[in-house]
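Researcher: Here's a chain I'd like modeled. Treat it as a single chain, no partners, no ligands.
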Amino acid sequence: MKNGFVRLSLLTTFLFFSELLAAQNAGDDGSRLFVTILIILVVLIGFVVIIQVADNLLRIEAKKTGADRSGANFSVFPGLSEFFAPKLANFVDESRTYVLTKGHDINLEGDAAADSSTPSVTRYALQPPNFVGMSPIPKLMVEVGDSVKAGDPIFFDKKTDAVKHVAPVSGEVIAVNRAAKRSIAEVVILADKEMSYRKYDSFDLEAGSREELVNYLLDSGVWPFIRQRPYNIIADPNVVPANIFVSTFDTAPLAPNLNYIVQGKEDAFQKGLDILRMLTLGHVHLGLNANEDTPPAAAFTDAIGVEKHWFHGQHPVGNVGVQIHHIAPISSNDKVWTMGVQDVITLGKLFTEGKYDASRIVALTGAELNNPSYVNTYIGANIGDLVAGNLKEGNSRLISGDVLSGEQKSQDGFLNLFDDQITAVEEGNYYEMFGWLLPQKATPTISGTYPSFGDVKYTADTNTHGEKRAFVVTGQYESVMPMDIHVQHLMKNIIINDFERMEGLGIYELVEEDVALCEFTCTSKQPLQQILRQGLDTMREDG
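Model: Modeled as a single isolated chain. Structure tokens:
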């Protein structure tokens, strides 16, 4: 746009001087015309210069204050995005909407149907590796053979002994499974047929102080659901967060519909938000989905005491990290907390029902399932029990979570604490002769190698379609990253342990799920999530 003004000025100057040469033959009239044209040119050029300087100053100030992260156009000239902006539904508050243009949706076969069942699950487990930064061998408070109620303490981290990790179900502790160097991988509970719950003293929210509330949450076992950024660790009880963030939708492949999950739990969700509001001096921010033609669940849109923000775009727009980046970016000195929707419900039920309710609605998804659907269960359920009789014959991979950021599990494994999805996909352990040079079936990709038309859903497998290669600059990460972060430069500086540049390039704003799509697009087949966690752990340990 600016170059257009410059060219227009030059063209106008040329035309005026052409007219001037023709007019000079007219004597005095030509002289007066020359003066007039000269004045017009000076005014026009001065006007263009002033507009350009003002435009530059606006952009610099917006970048300095971070206001440009909102996606708004801080320029006196309209941008192309304003002419081609998506049409938002009537229920969306456009003044609080962030339209993100970068990202990519991976449409896979195997969406969960909107109906639920309750499978017979006999074993549940608490898994210390689910908690970032926890000691490999936490202090156990139970032994094999002990009987526990839902909410009874099972173990605590020796570094933060105030944070109790509690049983999701009642039953008998039947195993303490260990991994390398005798680290504790799982504490397994054989569930009772009828659930019994630990009794809690009631807490007076009006009379109690914030410190008393924190102690109550620590003792009850719900505190580990609150995660802190940077690093995505369990929230520090001694910290007062700047803000707390909750995303009410998930855009990952085959992700569960949180509008369906929250049905019937509206009171508990609102109570959970009320509790979170008492834990921060800032705001509780709620991320709402502006992608659909129908409004989100009333539990989300009618929530009170929170700041609501609408987000429109492709994955990873539903990630709470992306939403934090655009609402209130964090730095090394900031501490913000996050919670998932079902975690907020568990927090709320502690006060509405007086018990630790670790129940979860889990989406069973993927093309390798006979009947993708939702199931009612509890945290840490045995995966084999959840998919029993529902898995197709063949060589399948079971994932706790989604295909981008989930963890591979065996049927004897257990659902991770923060996951509300199991994905079953075909194993891709085959060799592709000549790779993409030969005709193949449609494959999810961001490239134009396999063009698709319309709303195509893919049946994907786990084949990486190539080996690990040189870490080259391609620009692919930036094409799908809706955050003002140069992922490729960040990853290379993590590898060489350049602390200053890691911090300057925005490592504190990221966790693994935020770069999972970049890893999917990576021509070099680099394990970006693993590299990022390595960098985050290094920064955290360095202090």
